[in-house]
Prior knowledge:
- InterPro entries: Ada-like_dom_sf, Ada_DNA_repair_Zn-bd, Homeodomain-like_sf, HTH_AraC, HTH_AraC-typ_CS, Me-P-triester_DNA_alkyl-Trfase, Tscrpt_reg_AraC-type_HTH.
- By secondary structure, the protein is an alpha+beta fold.
- It contains 10 helices and 4 strands.
- The chain has helices spanning about 5-10, 50-55, 75-90, 95-100, 105-115, 120-140, 145-150, 155-165, 170-175, 180-190; strands at about 20-25, 30, 45-50, 60.
Amino acid sequence: MQEEQWNAIASCDSAYDGQFFYAVKTTGIFCRPSCKSRIPKRDNVVVFLTIDAAMDADFRPCKRCKPDQFQWPAEELARKTMDYIDAHHSEPLTLGIMANGLHINQYHLHHIFKRVVGVTPREYLLQKRIAQAKRLLDEREFSVTDIAASVGFVNAAHFSTVFRKQIGLSPSEYRNRPKTTDSKLSELDGGAKWLC
């Protein structure tokens, strides 16, 4: 442990939050540098650069400073959540999985995302999947079943039901539509504007 890190811990300096985490061997707990808990004995402190490293060493997050729920600014959290959904939209994805992936409380994530983006993470995920399905349907190379699976739906029947509800056409009808209906479809699909 560097002297600068120890000084940050001893003075509860929030400027170092996110740069490193410290664990106390005698308690089995790890904290942010700004934690207001009693200052530990220096000999009992171990420093980690990431949350995962501390958890891999079998330390538990402090219930007071909650280092596993790093607080990004609202806009940054929303952007990171969108990036996470964009990268994982074809996988089974729940709010809990997203929150774990971002090391944040799921209720806080839901609240901040809805406030910043205007829709819930689930609604954003659905629109991402539908937008990807529309692109794949336009390519005409894949079956509806294959498209459903590739964009994260459990089965083709559920995909077709959701797609019809969102777009106003079944996946097959969308694929076979005359191109002149695209302007009408963009009106029906107005909810996806915030994806841009």
